[in-house]
Design brief:
The C terminus is likely disordered. This protein is mostly helical. The longest helix has 35 residues.
């Protein structure tokens, strides 16, 4: 392990450790959820499978967002957070579309 002497180095090392921990935790949770979805897809459709898979996908999104927020908070504390205007605008459009065209909503 590298020698961390200055306060700046210590702060950067702590932020990197926190980011690493967040990513590792999210990866293990998302991997488990993906394996759950894969197992469900191998079973006969019980009629509620789409709802259960959608719920698992929501949990995946939540864990990924938590990791991203944690890493972004560390980056903001160090004054180096990234803002991608195109991704933000695209994300808003996709989020709006997802809320209006959910595959789980009843079709007329």
């Amino acid at each position: 392990m590298a020698d961390v002497n200055s306060p700046t180095q210590q702060m950067l090392a702590a932020a990197l450790r926190n980011a690493d921990a967040s990513v590792q935790l999210a990866e293990s949770k998302v991997t488990a959820l993906v394996e759950g979805v894969k197992a469900m897809l191998l079973q006969p459709d019980s009629g509620l499978m789409r709802v259960a898979i959608a719920e698992l996908c929501g949990q995946i999104r939540m864990h990924v967002n938590e990791a991203g927020n944690s890493i972004n908070a560390s980056a903001e504390q160090l004054g180096c957070s990234h803002v991608d205007d195109l991704a933000i605008n695209t994300g808003l459009r996709l989020s709006t579309a997802a809320n209006t065209q959910s595959p789980l909503k009843a079709k007329p």
